[in-house]
């Protein structure tokens, strides 16, 4: 039994170390390989198609440049703000995400030659007839996307127009909040806003482009000079032979914003059934990733929590203090903060990269394990003290008495709590999308970026979670009846 358990733990540890999708083909092994992060919720510059392919101006440019400059890359989708921090922490080699080149950003990043010029527009709900110019925004709440040029532009106007700024991590949520009336307008890059409207988003642009800026490919300052040089050389080559113009025009058109060619989806094909049919593979893949994270996380968290519980009832005060401290710290720390600390904070401190899957599992182990340790410790303490006294009086050493008498009874009492924690862990995996894990929630975000049908997609995602949780609840009820 012990050998089997040891082998199982080793297998799980191997999965964690390797992560998801970490291997490279033999053909690519001799070429430089980079990890490049992007925000795939930013069409027409980056989005993901129904088949899972990454498309958009940035994606096509990167693909063409990598072929010409003979390097390979792993694309890591995450929110823009998380992507920037990932590059700063050394978890990714570069970022391409419609990133505006600014003096402030130049202090932390080295940028490529500018590859696209844009400007910021303001858009409001098409039902809002009162907002028609910048002057109409005085004293109003407006929406921006965290860390973007649009956010900087709004901030520069905040004092003059008495703006109340509300920040979001992705464009779709920002648009939705404006359309329901929580904010009166959104600040967004013009081609992105125009694309959203062309895809059926019920908004209208009320200003001309302002604060025109340029987009650049970025690496951490002082790092990856070779990659930056390759990008610049490849970009110049694409411009020289006309390939660059073909890529841009395929998304934006020659004379106007024409998004029908290479568009992510048709605004007329967004029924519930059509969305489900188009994205069933992506949704099932996201669900499977969620289940993988949940199972690996809860198994290892249970082992860790059991150790904490045993230490918590130890006769040695020092060991009890260690258990109490670890439970207090990791149960009290928000999982989002913990995930960022492990994935971004630790690499900044140590200089060692941590795969996103590994960081996600470690987050689950520390957080969920603290809760498990707490209730298992309570289960041990709930066993009548006379049980231990009786076992010791029969000559059993403390360790054997714990294994044979206390632990079986204590664990039996906590089985319902274990299953409940399994359900909580399943839901908590959604938080890990912030570090680039494409589980079920992140899959929904990517689909919404493509079709901008937030209500319909989130309803489907919620339904999938409820189905799985209902099945787990039935299992919980069955197990409880069997152990009584």
UniProtKB/TrEMBL annotation:
Main location: membrane
A single MF term (Gene Ontology): ligand-gated monoatomic ion channel activity
Compartment(s): Cell membrane
GO cellular component: ATP-binding cassette (ABC) transporter complex
SUPFAM superfamilies listed in its UniProt record: MetI-like (SSF161098), Periplasmic binding protein-like II (SSF53850)
Domain ABC transmembrane type-1: 287-476
GO biological process, one term: amino acid transport
Gene3D superfamilies: MetI-like (1.10.3720.10), Periplasmic binding protein-like II (3.40.190.10)
Pfam family, one: BPD_transp_1
Topology relative to the membrane: Multi-pass membrane protein
Residues annotated as transmembrane: 287-313, 325-346, 352-372, 431-449, 455-475
UniProt keyword terms in alphabetical order: Cell membrane, Membrane, Transmembrane, Transmembrane helix, Transport
Family named by the database record: Belongs to the binding-protein-dependent transport system permease family.
Family matches, as NCBIfam families: HEQRo_perm_3TM (TIGR01726)
Protein name: Transporter substrate-binding domain-containing protein
Gene source species: Weissella muntiaci
